[in-house]
Structure formats: C-alpha cells, structure tokens
C-alpha cells in the first residue's frame, strides 16, 4: 500500500493571500525570515487579514537561511508562551521549514531533535495548532510537502525531517509574493524545483499519482524558468505553480541522491555554504549519468527528454540530451557546473569558496553522511561508499561519470 498526502486546501492565484481572513481561530503566530516580507508589505497584509479573522497575532521574525536547531527551539518556546491555534509561516523554504519543526516541539516539549531525525517518526500533530504555509519563492514547495530541512551547525549537517504530519493544513500559493524575487534566487529556486520533479519521476516510489505532476512540472519549468530569470512576470507566475506541482510529486514519491549530496555538502565546509538550489543544479547532471546505469531509470530519463522535445532516437541519446540541456540551463542561469567554480552566492567564478584541500580531507565523511541521508533510499541506484566518493569528486572537478 502507498500513500498520497497533500494539504487539505490549496488556494492559488493572485491575491489568494486574502483567504487568511477566513481562518477560524483565536491566536495566530506568524513565522517569517529576514525582512523582505515586511519590506514589500506582505507581512502587514498577513497581520491585517488574520486580525480580520478575529485573531490575536504575534510575530516570530528573522529566521535565518538554512535554519538552525537553536532557532527552531527559540520559536517553539515562543509558541508555548503564546499558545497559538494557528501557525502561519511565510517566506522562502527556511521560515516554513523552521516553523514545521517548531510545531512539533510546541506540541511535544519533551521530544528531542534526535527523536525527529528518523524519517516518519513524528508524534501526532494538531493537538494544539493547525498550520498554514505561504511561499514567497518558487522552489522548495515546502507549503505542500512532508519535509523540512534543519541544520545542525555544530555537526555541519543539514537534516531532512520527514513525516506526513508536517504537511501543512492550508497552502496559499500567491504569485504576487514570488514576483519580488531577485534573479539569482529565481535561478536557484527554479533549479531546485526542476530537481524535485526529475528525482520524483525516477524515484523507486513513483506512482500513477505522482508521475503526471512531475512531468508537467518539468515541462513548465523548462519552458518558463529562463524567462522568469530574465524578468518575465507571467513566466514567474507560472513558475510558482510549477514548483508547487513538483512539490506535490516529490512529497509523495520522495527524492534521490542529488538531495542527499546537497544536504550533506551544504554546511560542511569552512569557506561558506553551498546554496541548496545551486548544489542541486550542479549535482543533477552527474547523478543522472550515474543512475542511468539502471535500465528503468534510464528509460524514465529518456521519457522526460521526449516530453520536453529533446533530440535523440535511443535511450542513451535521450539521456545525454537531458544532461546537456540541464547543463545549458545552468550556464544560462549563471550557476556553476562544478564546485571548483562555485563563487560566493552560488554564481560562476574562477576561484571556488570551497577549498580543494578541505573538500578532499572531508570526502570520506561527507560521502558516508550522504549515503545515510533520508533521500538515498528512494534513489534508483544506491551508491557504495567508493561510488559516492567518486560522485562527489566528479561534482567538485566536473569529471565524467563512467562507473
């Protein structure tokens, strides 16, 4: 038996944020990031609509990118003090992911972070509050997923928390928020969404319910991401829908080792973070080549290539065409091919912020952590320690995959 879980209600289209005025409750805590939602006036709108709904509102602001365990615990403490019956998280993936984890510790103060690392191990939620998510970026789709990524900076590891309990009750996918994204963020989040859709389509847990969502998302992203990056707001609006469709697919089909590698390299090096969307964009072509040794996966990659009208008459030609197209997209979006050209902020550079010596010193440990990541189990080909080390080396130096 398989399971397919989505939010109870999903409101989409311009102005859909106004649906907050129809929520039923007494208190709402609003979890947001570093200030863009306030600067662009969306935070005031959210507060206003919630007050229209008759609720007392409190803010928890300044959730950092790649939110930490410590931020989650501070937010949970604020919730225990305020006792909201609605948690409203708005912004990029970071504040929404953080709020999902806060939710668990609000309702179950005795639970530890270590308790939640095991996939699908959360206690039953909604004993105190329901959850509404409002994304401002077009990539993570955390508004419709059973996932949250939280970083333990002491260990230098990003942990993907997974449980259907943390799928939001309500998602509001309002493209007005996404229209404020700068180009670089548009690029990184867009390729994150593309990775979600492709990994979901070849996942060992894909099914008839996830496949059409993944394929349509891939097509929309392929057609609209570059235009969105260049400032076409109609394309930007379509991308906001596309990333949500990709999220619906991967939340139920799960992901693969592109995400395993991105999670475990993201915070591992002293030179700085490898931004999640940029990491996925760099690693995806290499992982496709690795996974294509599996015949079923190769066939599904070929189906993707045909669906977006790439050239090729054989499976191998179509897989190679898909890899070439993804690399072309990276170049057009100023995303590096490899870590050795990963500059500050995730753009192409002559000198990487990730030191080559440190990368190689940590190679074995990072490979071990990547294999142990929650996303590895649904990848079509499970790498050995040696193969994961070779894969990571390939994504550092942009080497060919022949194993």
UniProtKB/TrEMBL annotation:
SUPFAM superfamilies assigned to the protein according to its UniProt record, in alphabetical order: Dehydroquinate synthase-like
CDD domains noted in UniProt: NADPH_BDH
Keyword Oxidoreductase attributed: yes
Pfam families: ADH_Fe_C, Fe-ADH
Keyword field contains Oxidoreductase: yes
Alcohol dehydrogenase iron-type/glycerol dehydrogenase GldA domain residues: 7-175
Domain Fe-containing alcohol dehydrogenase-like C-terminal residue range list: 186-395
Keywords, comma-separated and alphabetical: Oxidoreductase
A GO MF label: metal ion binding
Name of the protein described by the UniProt record: Butanol dehydrogenase
Organism: Ruthenibacterium lactatiformans
